[in-house]
Amino acid sequence: MIDPPLQHNVPPTIVSIPTGRPVSEALKLMNANKSSYVLVMDGLATVGIITERDMTVLLEDSFSGANWRDITVDNVMTSPLVTVPWDSTLLESIDVMRNRKIRHTPVQDGAGVTIGVITPQVVIDLLYRNWNDD
């Protein structure tokens, strides 16, 4: 099946950080988990995302004199989130990512709880795995 449903195929690993935390902690989490993103959580609700792109903008700003060590994840995160429902297919999620020009898309279940994140690597892995299964 080349266009697998996400509900049983999205990796359940989620890298997250609570709101209000220093962005330096988000960077450490991304590095420790070899992740290109970190989700920003308010309790169980996913309220934003910080990606490698956001970190490069932050780094550029620090060259202009901004002290990024004092900045919280709330100041850097992209919000509101662009998400896809868990009953979407891989190609539907790719379509969302292409149209919105984003590389990370949280997948949410029917209750709005994030169950995984579609990243470029996840897309490659799912296409490869499903291509070879046919």
Q: Could you explain how this protein is built, in words?
A:
By secondary structure, the protein is α/β, with parallel strands linked by helices. 38% of the residues lie in helices and 20% in strands. It has 5 helices and 6 strands. It has helices at 23-32, 52-63, 73-76, 90-100, 120-133, and strands at 16-18, 37-42, 45-51, 84-85, 105-108, 114-118. It is elongated. The protein starts with 15 loop residues before the first strand and ends with a helix. The model has no long low-confidence stretch (mean pLDDT 87).
Give the neighbour order of strands across the main sheet. Answer: 1-2-3
Biggest sheet features: 3 strands, mixed
> Which structural category fits the helices and strands?
alpha/beta
The coarse silhouette is: elongated
Give the helix proportion (percent range).
25-40%
Count helical runs. Answer: 5
Q: DSSP strand (E) fraction?
A: 15-25%
Sketch the topology as an H/E string, one letter per element. EHEEHHEHEEH
Identify low-pLDDT runs. none
Rg measurement, Å: 16 Å
- Quick one: how many beta strands? 6
